[in-house]
Write the structure tokens for this entry.
Amino acid sequence: MSQARGRYDFCIGLVLAMSSSIFIGGSFILKKKGLLRLARKGSMRAGQGGHAYLKEWLWWAGLLSMGAGEVANFAAYAFAPATLVTPLGALSVLVSAILSSFFLNEKLNLHGKIGCLLSILGSTVMVIHAPQEEEVETLDEMSNKLRDPGFVVFATVVVIVSLILIVVVGPRHGQTNILVYITICSVIGALSVSCVKGLGIAIKELFAGKPVLKRPLSWILLLSLTVCVSTQINYLNRALDIFNTSIVTPIYYVIFTTSVLTCSAILFKEWQHMAADDIIGTFSGFLTIIVGIFLLHAFKDVNFTLANLPVSLRKDDRAANGSLLSTYDCFNHDEESSTCVSEIQSTESLSARRNGSLSAF
């Protein structure tokens, strides 16, 4: 009976995590559209410390969408382990990429489609190998976990690193280095996930009739979550305003997920109850997702489709044979002569450059 109940909770957590990714992925687009509208109006940008986005309804729509996603994500942590819920955030990257092609005029080429497919496959592998039993089920157990020396050291390091990035590094390099603001969001997000997990357990006990509201731990977790989420929203807005959405989203996903998996390994120790093949499968799925996200965005500006593939292969074959087009072939066909001459000149120019000839310039 307990095993069936655990399976039921696992499925609920899975559905909530997937719906959360859809809402969050859409929120990136709505927020970016709002920030772009403000930039066209000449308002002070969020990346420069401005808060004019608070008057933009599109930004608020994005915030509400993200809020709905976070609520679903919040509930998912109460039913499923963080090792499963967090990596499924990759689906938000797919949603963001697809919607960006429609609303932000960002193209999804062949590399992007392969990246989407790999991300879905990686997520499926992680779902199959994720732990289906959660160790921490009561607030008393959560309290003991939070007092664990390993987690205390981890939380202290996260707070110190975040303060250094906010106070020292951010004002100097935040406008030029994409990793500054995203790292702040990610490492603080690891602590917020821990708070969410604890509050999820508290809510389950509250529905069970236990006096959760009288326990200081519940309010400490709520206060900590509020501070963490506020910090995340602030610095994520800055990153989105300064840098391209297609760059911010995948980097944020990778760093955030890595931080959460590290925090989960230290706090909940879910990995101790997993078989070796499940651990390998989980890491393999996660790496597959990372490769998919890389393909999705690294070659985003390359105009490459299936229709271009045979042409590319033919050009590679001809280049390997030492001759792209012969002079006879070029001038034997009048309608293609201009194209052929252009290709010959391009080839000669490329060869001259490779040989270090200044005449190519």
Confidence is low (pLDDT under 50) at residues 323-361. Residues 1-93 form one domain. Residues 5 and 27 are 33 Å apart (CA to CA). The two ends are 77 Å apart (CA to CA).
